[in-house]
Amino acid sequence: MTGSVTSEDAYTAEPFVPDRGGLPALREAAAECRGCPLHRDATQTVFGAGKASARLMLVGEQPGDQEDRQGKPFVGPAGHLLDRALAEAGLDPADAYVTNAVKHFKFTRAEPRKRRIHQAPTLREAAACGPWLAAELDRVEPELIVVLGATAGKALLGSSFRVTRVRGTVLEEEVHGHPRRLVPTVHPSAVLRADDREGAYRGLVSDLKVAARTLG
Question: H or E segment at 146?
Fold first, then answer.
């Protein structure tokens, strides 16, 4: 490894991930993660939530402002929209394990004390957090992964992933050394930003119905 420890090449959560223990042990260890600089400005690590027995795992990009404050994934506006879409597709949000590719909120401020504005994580930041996602997959062993948006897709499937090409289809790919079934779709925050919000929402529900049929 070359360069200083602050160089992007050195980013990795690997030293912080415990070899043993279930999801509670992972969550406790993740609270102390310093694998990349995002921990410096974020309020706290936002780890995944849900049952270790969940058949469905939902993977998003990163926590937003509300998630960062509350310490739980998908509790803000995008999360509420996702819950509604899941229920409409015939999937119980309470039965899913939800997490993000990146566990810390990345943001910028136009001025001090102003609203925190979401910034997309870099591929290296997502890769640095990859060991946490791999550990969650190992503990949960979901039957199906719903990929929410481009950042999550690239974290799981590589930088060539394009959500628009494969959304609403069932993929069978190797992820972190194990065969997985995945259904990609847009991130619910993209629905909230869409000009045609109702049309974008219908598209999300349609993709989630594919996931519901796949789970049977």
Answer: strand 144-148
